[in-house]
Amino acid sequence: MFPFLENVHDISPFPPDALSFNGGSFPTIKSVIHVEQTLELYRLIASQCAVYNCESKIVSICGTGKGAFFERETLVRDDGGILYARLLSVVYIPGLCGVSRNGSASPVARVVVPKEREPDWESSLRTSPEQAMLYRLSGDYNPLHIDPCIARSFGFEKPILHGLCTMGIAARILYQIFCSRVPSRFTKIRVRFTKPVYLEYSTGTTSTITI
């Protein structure tokens, strides 16, 4: 199956270009920037085999004049309709003009910047050089995260780690430190992707706690 994952170098596209959907002027993946991601957990996800249904819809659109923000909500339910999780994903599409504001409030929330002082707590977790190659097996085959030529075309020095992979590493650190590895204590995480994480660097997360 690996020869059909993406259309770069010696790799064939799947589905083939002739069978791909032609979206006309709809932006391609190269023009979509993942800005924010939120995960809310209402019930524990079964560790054994279980069936869950995902329902997604666009809940907010906000034009900026130079582009537009889109917020997508995904609800995860079991076969009985019980809600287990809610995901909010915000993407920015540069160059998409003529878009007015629709739906809920602006999808990009105001960032609360902590006061200038040393953090109360710091932790870091070093990733492996193969981290992006392992994560892409989950279905995100964007060549930005593995092809140096593509990465440089986007203005990066080298391939960067997937944003959601970085989020998962940060969530793991928070889960271990603040939740004492008790699943029911981890109920929500929200992140904003502002800086790239290069594969040979440490992926760290810093939390400021005000009491």
Automatic annotation (TrEMBL):
One of its GO terms (biological process) is fatty acid beta-oxidation. SUPFAM superfamilies: Thioesterase/thiol ester dehydrase-isomerase. This is Peroxisomal hydratasedehydrogenaseepimerase putative. PANTHER family: PEROXISOMAL MULTIFUNCTIONAL ENZYME TYPE 2 (PTHR13078:SF56), PEROXISOMAL MULTIFUNCTIONAL ENZYME TYPE 2-RELATED (PTHR13078). InterPro entries: HotDog_dom_sf, MaoC-like_dom. Residues 116-200 form the MaoC-like domain. GO terms for molecular function: (3S)-3-hydroxyacyl-CoA dehydrogenase (NAD+) activity; 17-beta-hydroxysteroid dehydrogenase (NAD+) activity; enoyl-CoA hydratase activity. GO terms for cellular component: peroxisome. It comes from Albugo laibachii Nc14. Pfam families: MaoC_dehydratas. Gene3D superfamilies: Hotdog Thioesterase (3.10.129.10).
